């Protein structure tokens, strides 16, 4: 699926990679969206990676890879489907949270406003941090 203008949709749970955009910060288990997404540079990735996986603390967006992604079900993104199955949110939450990527978002295109309500609670990397003494 692509946008109405023919461009590719955006993955709202991409990795911290140069060329992607930073669009949220994880705070108290929820994503606080930035008003304007910021470009991810190699220097930024290097700086934030020194404190563990960036996806544990930030949310990034990049081009949806569809069939090249392990989360692709053949018809859509499996991440949002699993999240919505677990959360059991109402179908039409209102008002939708402010979001700079909604017009291009794979999850919104796939599941509408319900995906937006769940998106706030999706942390891309929830692995436990490994400390030096656990190592």
From TrEMBL:
Source domain of life: Bacteria
Protein name per the record: Nitrogen fixation protein
């Amino acid at each position: 699926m692509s946008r109405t203008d023919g461009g590719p949709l955006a993955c709202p749970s991409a990795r911290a990679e140069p060329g992607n955009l930073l669009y949220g910060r994880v705070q108290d288990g929820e994503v606080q969206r930035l008003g304007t997404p910021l470009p991810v540079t190699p220097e930024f990735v290097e700086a934030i990676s020194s404190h563990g996986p960036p996806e544990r603390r930030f949310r990034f967006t990049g081009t949806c890879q569809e069939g090249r992604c392990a989360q692709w079900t053949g018809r859509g993104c499996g991440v949002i489907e699993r999240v919505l199955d677990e959360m059991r949110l109402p179908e039409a939450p209102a008002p939708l949270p402010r979001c700079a990527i909604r017009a291009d978002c794979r999850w919104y295109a796939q599941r509408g406003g319900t995906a937006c309500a769940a998106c706030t609670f999706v942390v891309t990397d929830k692995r436990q941090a490994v400390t030096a003494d656990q190592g």
